[in-house]
Amino acid sequence: MNTGVVLASGGGGSNGGIIAVVIIAIIFTAIAVSIVSFFQLQKHRADAVAFAAYRKLAEEAVEKQDQLLTELQALDLKVGEIERMLRSVE
């Protein structure tokens, strides 16, 4: 008769392998998520820089439009004066 105590069975080795594969998969997933997040952050930073440039360009355009409006109003006054002079000559 065999009265010894069995400390480990032969089927326990496969569980350790599965656990190791799961841990490695979790690590690779975390690395992949980190890399994707990093590149998304870089994309958003680049977009922010581009939007800042567009904002500056829009502000400059508004300033130029205001200057142009002022010049057009001055020209309108001058043309009005010339029309009055021409009418007074007739």
Compressed to H and E, one letter per element, the order equals H
The level of helicity is over 70%
Can you give the mean pLDDT?
88
**C-alpha Rg (nearest Å):** 40 Å
Main beta-sheet annotation: none
Show unreliable segments: none
What is the number of strand segments?
Answer: 0
- The general outline is rod-shaped
What's the number of helices? 1
Structural class based on helices, strands and sheet pairing? mainly alpha
User: What's the quaternary structure here?
Assistant: single chain
Termini separation: 140 Å
Strand content: under 5%
Verbal overview:
This protein is mainly α. The protein contains one helix and no strands. It has one helix spanning 13-89. It starts with 12 loop residues before the first helix and ends with a helix. The mean pLDDT is 88.
